[in-house]
Structure formats: C-alpha cells, structure tokens
Design goal:
Layout (H helix, E strand, L loop, with lengths): L3 E8 L3 H11 L10 E7 L6 E7 L5 E12 L3 E5 L2 E2 L3 E2 L6 E9 L2 E9 L3 H9 L2 H21 L1
Antiparallel strand pairs: 1-9, 2-3, 3-4, 4-5, 5-8, 6-7, 8-9
Length: 151
Amino acid sequence: MSNELVIERLMDAPVSALWRAYTDHLGEWFCPPPWRAELVEMDLRAGGRSSVTMYGPNGEEMPNEGVYLEVIPDRLIVFTDAFTPGWNPAGQPFMVGSFEFEPQGDKTLFRGRARHWTEEARSQHEAMGFEQGWGVMAAQWEAVAKRLAAG
C-alpha cells in the first residue's frame, strides 16, 4: 500500500509475553522518554475503545482516542482513530494501525503498520519520526516482554 509505513523486528521474547506486555503493561513502553503514557481504557475487542494519553516533559498532553477494528489474541491488533466507540466518526482520521505477531520459536516476528488515507498524512507521520518513534516503542516493548518472560 502506497500510504503505509511499516517497521519489522525479530523480538527476543515469545508472543505470549509481548501480548501480556500489551494488555497489562502498555504504559511502560508505549512512547519514548521523556514522554510517558497513561492507559485510559483498553476494551480489546472489535469496536472496543482504545484510549491512551501521552504526556510530554513540558506539559504537553496528547490523547490517542479510537477503536479496535480486529483483535486476534497473540496474533493481531488492528486499531484506528477514524472512529470513537459506537462507530461514531471521529472527524479527520489519521491512520489505521496494526501490530502483528508471528511466532518464531521463543522469539516473535513483529510488524507494526500505519496505513494513512492520504500521501500527505503518510508524509506527515514519517516527518514526525515514525521510524524512530515506533522503533523505540518496539525496543521498549521487547524489553518489557523479556522481563515478563523471565519472571
């Protein structure tokens, strides 16, 4: 897809630990420091609310509100900001995102995708630091999952 941004990583943690890190420890890895994330709601089912607020070091507040479109435990999470719960249009949509998990023995092949409606939105996301930001997120997520798998 031409308006898609993708990162792919072989993570040194099993799928089950990555899934648990998502469902139970999202605030620990969701955004790069010095930003921090606070989970507001995670209704992990198609149509369920996804709400995370990111806080910056200078008082910035960035709410991320949307819904889950598809959830397959231990395999796939698809989400968007195009809707709010109840399938209400959310105004100007930015993307449909997905996290894909493919078991590779005791490791996991992870793919993070961001699909945009327009080339302009894709370019904006790229310029915001998609590759670096999602890469840091993936590394932090992997570290939390490794800790959970070991513990």
